[in-house]
Design brief:
By secondary structure, the chain is mainly β. It has no helices and 26 strands. It has a nine-stranded mixed β-sheet with strand order 1-4-7-10-13-16-19-21-22, with no helix packed on it.
Length: 196
C-alpha cells in the first residue's frame, strides 16, 4: 500500500493491499477501498464509500457517499458522482442545511464499467457492468450492462464489450467484439454474452 504524505486519509478508512493514494487526495471516514486500487491526485472519496478491487479513480474525481463501486471500475479525471437529488444550501426558513436535513443517495457502478472524463452521474443511478459513459456525459437514468452512453442527458449510442471497444452489429440482433471475437445477443434493449 502506498499513501503519499500530502494525501488526507481518515484513520477509519480501510485501504486494501497494493492500493495507492496520490497527492492531495482525500479518503474520508469509513471508506473501504479494495486491493490494488488507485486514487489519483486531488480525488475525493466520501465517507463510507465502498470500492471493490482493482478500481481506478483518476485525478480530481469526486466520489460522494454513499457510492458503491464494484471490482474493476474506472472513474476518469474530474468525474462527479453526486449524492443529493434536490440540493439546497439552506432550508426554507433560511437556516443552513445540516446532515440531518437530507438523505444522501448514491451512484452504483457495476463490475468493469468505465466513466469518462468530466462525466457526471446524478444519483440515484446504476451503471451496468462493462458499460461505458462517454466523456462529458450527464447520466440521469440507469445504464444497462454493456451500453455505450453519451450526451446530455446521456443516451445509449451503441454497445461495448468487456475489452472496452464498440461492438460491431451482425445485423441480426447479434454483436461481436472486434478485439476478442466474443459474441453478444441483444434482446429488448439489453445485451448479454451469447450462451451465457
Amino acid at each position: 500500500m502506498r499513501i503519499v504524505d500530502s494525501a488526507d486519509v481518515a484513520d477509519s478508512a480501510v485501504i486494501g493491499d497494493g492500493s495507492s493514494i496520490w497527492h492531495l487526495a482525500q479518503v474520508r471516514e469509513s471508506a473501504h477501498l479494495g486491493r490494488n486500487c488507485i486514487v489519483g491526485r486531488g480525488a475525493y472519496i466520501g465517507t463510507g464509500v465502498v470500492m471493490g478491487d482493482n478500481c481506478k479513480v483518476q485525478n480530481y474525481a469526486l466520489v460522494y457517499e454513499p457510492a458503491r463501486l464494484a471490482d474493476g471500475v474506472f472513474i476518469g479525471p474530474a468525474v462527479v458522482l453526486t449524492n443529493d437529488t434536490y440540493p439546497r444550501a439552506i432550508n426554507p426558513d433560511g437556516s443552513l442545511k445540516s446532515t440531518s436535513d437530507w438523505e444522501p443517495v448514491g451512484v452504483t457502478i457495476e463490475r468493469g464499467a468505465s466513466i469518462g472524463a468530466r462525466a457526471t452521474c446524478v444519483a440515484p443511478v446504476t451503471i451496468g457492468e462493462w458499460s461505458t459513459v462517454a466523456a462529458g456525459a450527464v447520466v440521469v437514468k440507469d445504464v444497462p450492462a454493456y451500453a455505450l452512453v453519451a450526451g446530455v442527458p446521456a443516451r445509449r449510442i451503441g454497445w461495448v464489450g468487456e475489452a472496452g471497444l464498440p461492438l460491431q452489429s451482425n445485423g441480426d440482433g447479434t454483436w461481436i467484439c472486434p478485439a476478442s471475437g466474443t459474441r453478444y445477443v441483444e434482446t429488448d434493449g439489453t445485451l448479454a454474452k451469447e450462451n451465457a
